[in-house]
Amino acid sequence: MALKKSQKSLKDWTKQKWRTKSGKKSSETGERYLPERAIKMLSSAKYAAGTRRKRKATAEGKQNAKYTEAERKAFLRATGRKYKPKKKTKNKKKK
User: Fold this and answer.
1) Is 64 a domain residue?
2) What's this model's pTM, rounded to 2 decimal places?
3) Coil, helix or strand at residue 9
4) For residue range 4-15, what is the model confidence (pLDDT) as tens digits?
5) In sequence order, which residues have a C-beta less than 8 Å from that of residue 24 and are 6 or more positions away?
6) 34, β-bridge pairs
């Protein structure tokens, strides 16, 4: 029997071995959860930048924080997806 899309997604997610760099819970350390391969791709400085962003968002009462560009790139490579740089758009006023 074939897996449903949601079941396949969960199976893929499990294979990616999501964790923090320290191995402790994010709620204890304020670190970002990422796939193990993505953590290995990031330098210590780039991982620290993502952790700072996550801690700042948590302090502001937010549950989620946007990935830094380096984290996004590493995440997409680690999960086998293609990296597409974000397009910069000009703010246009709607009439």
Assistant:
1) yes
2) 0.73
3) helix
4) 888 888 887 788
5) 31
6) 19
CB 89 within 8 A of CB 52: no
DSSP strands (E only) in 1-95: 18-19, 34-35
Query: What are 23-57's pLDDT values in tens digits?
Result: 999 889 999 999 999 999 999 999 999 999 999 99
Q: What gap in Å lies between CA 95 and CA 90, rounded to an integer? A: 15
Average pLDDT, the chain: 86
Q: What is the dihedral of CA 56, 67, 18, 41, to 10 degrees?
A: -110
Range of the domain at 50: 42-80
Q: Is 34 domain-assigned?
A: no
Q: Which tokens in the block code for residue 38?
A: 């993505």
Terminal CA-CA length for the chain: 52
Tally the domains of the chain. 1
